[in-house]
Design brief:
single chain; about 170 residues; mainly alpha; TerB-like; 8 helices; globular; disordered N terminus
């Protein structure tokens, strides 16, 4: 894992090594690996993508934060009393990542296509919750679609469902 995939400049080496070690421990193909830890890593990664979507227009509005919390509770089954802890874990994931590939790779390893489509829909709800689609938000959504290997038709359908659900 010494490549950065050309997606961004690396963070300090210590932070990167810490994040890599944490991911390797969580995603180890070891029989003793706890599936709950892997699920937690994927949940943190998905939540990090929701936060990234909310911040793509350089501001995290109250509407966007409320939508993130609603998505965590309603769409991803996070208990209401665990939402804040999930948000903190997601912020740690974002802080440790050097590029979006590292985050989407966790989701790709642990989630089915259907789960990833639900994530894209939740991201659209966050992006559209302030009733304005910033060009940076649109660009981020396209980038995430590619990194999660979401087919174009499913991507468009998720956007339509998100718009009608708001």
């Amino acid at each position: 894992m010494s490549e950065f995939y050309g997606c961004c400049m690396p963070e300090p080496v210590l932070m990167l090594n810490k994040f890599r070690n944490r991911l390797e421990n969580l995603l180890a193909p070891d029989d003793t690996a706890d599936s709950a830890e892997q699920s937690t890593a994927a949940t943190f990664a998905a939540t990090a993508l929701l936060i990234e979507a909310a911040q793509a227009d350089s501001e995290l509005s109250d509407d966007e934060l409320t939508q993130i919390k609603n998505s965590l509770a309603n769409q991803f089954g996070i208990r209401v009393n665990e939402v804040e802890q999930t948000l903190l874990g997601a912020h740690e994931t974002l802080d440790a990542a050097t590029c979006l590939y590292e985050i989407t790779n966790i989701v790709n390893r642990d989630w089915s296509l259907n789960q990833k489509i639900h994530l894209i829909e939740a991201m659209w709800k966050v992006v559209l919750s302030d009733n304005y689609l910033d060009p940076n938000e649109n660009h981020l959504m396209r980038k995430i679609k590619g990194l999660l290997y979401i087919p174009q038709a499913e991507y468009i359908n998720a956007k339509i469902r998100a718009q009608s659900g708001l």
